[in-house]
Design a protein that fits this description.
This protein is α+β, with helices and mostly antiparallel strands. Helices cover 31% and strands 13% of the residues. It has five helices and seven strands; from the N terminus they run αβααββββαββα. The chain has helices spanning 5-13, 30-43, 50-58, 128-135, 177-202; strands at residues 19-21, 63-67, 82-86, 99-102, 121-124, 156-157, 167-170. It has a seven-stranded antiparallel β-sheet, sandwiched between helices. The termini are far apart.
């Protein structure tokens, strides 16, 4: 049985031993943090590290990052990967994350060849419009067969979850620094909007009004 992108993270979040990542920027103004990270993403000449991606996403605000680990109830295959949610209340939502980082091949997801040394893949759910912009076709349409899912520093359709509108980048670097930044902002914005809609839908109705 295939576990979806959010399933392994929610399994991890059900136990208190889950690794919940937080970055302390309280000593810096938010705008200073944002500008510093944007400067790195714009000027880097080498591949972007996982830690730098975590810092960038965290600085967007309201982000809950989960990293499954031994003892938290998550499948062993997911240990060490990262799942990012918009969850300002700190509660893992039932919805999918808006971005993930995977550091290894999965049984049904091997075409990115993440078994190579230091390889990882950033996966981003930035919506249908961005998917169309980057791939030239709708998520439900067949994937382009000649795309090498293991090519580094290129924005492509996710090899497994492309039909759901996910994009991905193997080992982001100078060629995708700016696009990755924009896509993550868009994905975060969409996740925040979904969170607000769920919040409004669950609010009690004031029956005293006519």
């Amino acid at each position: 049985m295939r576990l979806g992108i959010g399933a392994v993270a929610r399994l991890a979040g059900q136990r208190r031993s889950s690794a919940i990542l937080t970055c302390d920027y309280s000593h810096l103004p938010h705008e200073q943090v944002r500008q510093s990270l944007h400067k790195h993403f714009n000027e880097t000449l080498e591949r972007v590290s996982i830690d730098e991606i975590i810092e960038y996403i965290d600085a967007l605000g309201g982000v809950l990052a989960l990293r499954p680990q031994p003892g938290d109830g998550s499948p062993e295959i997911s240990w060490g990967d990262l799942f990012f949610y918009y969850a300002p209340d700190g509660v893992v939502p039932k919805s999918q994350p808006f971005a993930t980082i995977v550091t290894k091949d999965y049984p049904d997801d091997r075409t990115s060849r993440l078994d190579r040394p230091d390889a990882f893949r950033l996966n981003i759910s930035a919506g249908a419009a961005e998917f169309l912009n980057w791939t030239g076709h709708e998520p439900q349409e067949p994937a382009t067969p000649d795309i090498d899912a293991g090519t580094a520093d290129v924005v492509i359709r996710h090899p497994v979850y492309g039909s759901l509108g996910w994009l991905c980048v193997v080992n982001p670097g100078s060629g995708t620094a700016a696009p990755v930044r924009d896509l993550l902002r868009t994905a975060h914005h969409l996740a925040r909007a979904r969170y607000q809609r769920r919040l409004e839908a669950s609010a009690p109705t004031d029956r005293s009004r006519p």
